[in-house]
Amino acid sequence: MTASQAILKGIAEDGGLYVPTTLPEVTLDWEVLQNQSYQEIAIEILSAFLTDFTKEEITACVHSAYDTTFDTKEIAPVKKVGDRHFMELFHGRTIAFKDMALSILPYLLTTAAKKNKSDKEIVILTATSGDTGKAALAGFANVPHTNIIVFYPKGGVSTIQERQMVTQAGDNTFVYGVEGNFDDAQTKVKELFADKELNATLAEKGFQFSSANSINIGRLCPQIVYYVFAYAQLVKDGTLAIGDPMNVVVPTGNFGNILAAYYAKGIGVPINKLICASNENDVLVDFFQTGTYNRLREFKLTSSPSMDILVSSNLERFVFELTGRSSDTTNALMTSLKENGSYSVPNTDTALFKQFYGNRASQEETAQTIHDVFKSEHYLLDPHTAVADAVYAKYKKETEDATPTVVVSTASPYKFPQSVLSALDVDTNQSDAELMNAIQQESGIAIPTAVTSVLDAPIRHTKVLSIEGMKQSVLDSLNIQ
Ligand SMILES: *Cc1c(COP(=O)(O)O)cnc(C)c1O
């Protein structure tokens, strides 16, 4: 299996996830890297992981993804605030970190299709609970030889999230509200992916399904890049001498972002602790404290919704490492998760396991953090980043570890205006446009065009379907009779 085939397939036929056979040998020359652009570092790192892509192919993908779609030249600016650095991963088109990978995935996918001599157009199907849908739409819009179809639960996403999706431009974008909850839509999408008759019809008309899901290795590899970039920035600003350790704190849901940090460490970025921050859905905290993963618990809706997850799919890839890279043992543990709701890894007394530290922040602690950091340091956090910063404070108090630390900022405060403003004791009983103005007034940060463009844009997608209607809507979108 080559890298391009793994990206095209997304998930293996037996339901397992693809991982690199071995980690690539990369020469990380920090003297050079500290003066390189994000794009230059991306080309280096992605070429090392995606071994069957040529350097020219990777270069083209990287420039298409990052040159014009971010609102800052640095792509992932690293800012010192008090005793830590924040790496802002929210300067792409949907002002959240999923843009880092979903801006490049469409180009990796179409390149992969070409390399594998597929002459078919790619059709991405996605069910979304809000954030991923928009980031995927923005990434795939108007990319030649691709189509993207997104289903969201009508009434089950925030008004801003719905507006972001239904105003999406691009002749190859299709957005449908469905009468059902996210799980219903997600289950149906999985069924459609596996529908032999539908796949055959599509193939006959020149189409093939592919997945933009966060378990696609084509989403993981681009996330390794910014950890290399962060270390290079800390060397450049003199915080670190070359070779000094750095901690990272990652607000975690599906375990994709922090897993990329683990791989970055694997190729030689001097990362000390991988600090895994959870909200009240703290299944990973218990895992890192006990070695037992147990999803049988109450699902909580919190102010950091992108971390409201009880099954962190990407953890499977770390479990594979913990079992000494045994597919059989990993498979047995994942089967136990499905059938019994839990599993325990055999040995937690290892350096491999202990490089992770897990802790949680409640909703009250999250709001308090947004409030305190803004009042005392004049830096405005979104609730996801605030969970990470609250956990970092706990870690530091507990361990007195003074290693320079990067807190990964996964969303702009503009993406979650209600929670941010109520943490600042501002009245939130206002329209979306007024809330945006209030954030601008408080923070002095200009309203991102990602927000203003959505507030004024015309609505292009209005169809609402039953779950049963989803299959026909795929055919209709692609103009198949
Ligand atoms: C998706 C998301 C996360 C969680 O990232 P994982 O890779 O799923 O752990 C955190 N914050 C924001 C804003 C997100 O959109």
Automatic annotation (TrEMBL):
<dbReference type="Pfam" id="PF00291">
    <property type="entry name" value="PALP"/>
</dbReference>
<dbReference type="InterPro" id="IPR004450">
    <property type="entry name" value="Thr_synthase-like"/>
</dbReference>
<dbReference type="Pfam" id="PF14821">
    <property type="entry name" value="Thr_synth_N"/>
</dbReference>
<dbReference type="GO" id="GO:0005737">
    <property type="term" value="C:cytoplasm"/>
</dbReference>
<keyword id="KW-0456">Lyase</keyword>
<dbReference type="GO" id="GO:0009088">
    <property type="term" value="P:threonine biosynthetic process"/>
</dbReference>
<feature type="modified residue" description="N6-(pyridoxal phosphate)lysine">
    <location>
        <position position="98"/>
    </location>
</feature>
<dbReference type="InterPro" id="IPR036052">
    <property type="entry name" value="TrpB-like_PALP_sf"/>
</dbReference>
<feature type="domain" description="Tryptophan synthase beta chain-like PALP">
    <location>
        <begin position="88"/>
        <end position="410"/>
    </location>
</feature>
<dbReference type="GO" id="GO:0004795">
    <property type="term" value="F:threonine synthase activity"/>
</dbReference>
<protein>
    <recommendedName>
        <fullName>Threonine synthase</fullName>
        <ecNumber>4.2.3.1</ecNumber>
    </recommendedName>
</protein>
<comment type="similarity">
    <text>Belongs to the threonine synthase family.</text>
</comment>
<feature type="domain" description="Threonine synthase N-terminal">
    <location>
        <begin position="2"/>
        <end position="66"/>
    </location>
</feature>
<keyword id="KW-0663">Pyridoxal phosphate</keyword>
<dbReference type="InterPro" id="IPR001926">
    <property type="entry name" value="TrpB-like_PALP"/>
</dbReference>
<dbReference type="InterPro" id="IPR029144">
    <property type="entry name" value="Thr_synth_N"/>
</dbReference>
<dbReference type="InterPro" id="IPR037158">
    <property type="entry name" value="Thr_synth_N_sf"/>
</dbReference>
